[in-house]
Amino acid sequence: MRIISINVGLPRTLLHAGREVTTGIFKEPVEGPVMLRRLNLDGDRQADLSVHGGRWKAVYAYPSEHYEFWRKELPGKDLPWGIFGENLTTEGLKEDETNIGDRFRVGEAVLEVSQPRIPCYKLGIRFGRDDIIKRFLASGRSGNYFSVLEEGLVKAGDAIERIHEDENGVSVAEVQRAYRDSVENIEVMRRAVKIPALPDGWKEHFLKELSAVDQCR
Question: Number of folded domains in the chain?
Answer without folding.
Answer: 1
